[in-house]
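Fig. S4 source data, part A: sequence.
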Amino acid sequence: MTIQTMTTKVHTVGNLNEVQREVNRFRTEGYDPNNIFVLTHDKDRTSRIAENTDAEKIGVTVEGVGTAIANVFRSTGDELRAKMRSLGISEPYAEHLEGEMDKDKILVIAWGGREYLNDEYDDAIYYYPGYTPF
């Protein structure tokens, strides 16, 4: 049996209105509402934004139990990068996006649904605005 997945999309935005616009756009495009995530550098802010926009937080079911347990012992930046990596975001992109979150940016992620382990990543992710790590 083959499971059909969609292209993962990562949009970096600056405020709640932009988050809501992207969440609505991803839903219109057919993404499962349970696969539309928000992520910020602050857990409380992430929770508030997720609650106010009907988006999700990246949790144990997506990142995996091992990553979730390890995140207890990680710094905030390491935890954020681990969450992104579990969605298929490569290490260079995860570092760049974590830097954007340091500047109070918000990530809105429409996850395609494929799980990634260890150093696996999805080279077909669509990033907006674009970014070239090399």
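Fig. S4 source data, part B ends here. The CA atoms of residues 6 and 30 lie 9 Å apart.
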